[in-house]
Amino acid sequence: xxxxxxxxxxxxxxxxxxxxxxxxxxxxxxxxxxxxxxxxxxxxxxxxxxxxxxxxxxxxxxxxxxxxxxxxxxxxxxxxxxxxxxxxxxxxxxxxxxxxxxxxxxxxxxxxxxxxxxxxxxxxxxxxxxxxxxxxxxxxxxxxxxxxxxxxxxxxxxxxxxxxxxxxxxxxxxxxxxxxxxxxxxxxxxxxxxxxxxxxxxxxxxxxxxxxx
Length: 213
Known about the structure:
It contains six helices and nine strands; from the N terminus they run E-E-E-H-E-E-H-E-H-E-E-H-H-E-H.
């Protein structure tokens, strides 16, 4: 696997959901071109961050082959991606005090762009705000973004108060967006269903396995 580059940035792969549209189970472990979806995600994420953790609930042993720290949601009943982000922020604060920012990505997005971290950081610096998220095709992708570790207290309080919508919470602090083109394929395409997994397989076949984003 490619060497990590940005030592001050922690990456978290959000895989804490129930994958209902995929028939249950772990979407990141579904195969795409003979490899788990998670392998494709890590191939794109690892070169952009200093370290990667995985947010997943249940027995962490099923992800042992990837050699990643596995962080469960800090709140019960699957409260959504914000809980996975909070898990990563708490882990960074406790285990990696030199890390100030977390980059979150979903576990079912195999075509992440190689300039994701750099462009998100540039967007939030230019806007002078604390947060940034990705966008493509006129749509924002709130689970794909940069999160300051310093906001973990505010995020925990919001989750305990019942907040579940990412964009509503990020609006409190200001959230910049960085836009990517959707041709030849949306780099934030995610495989939520078996049909979408087949679409991703076809896209990889068209490119001969070369990076798309």
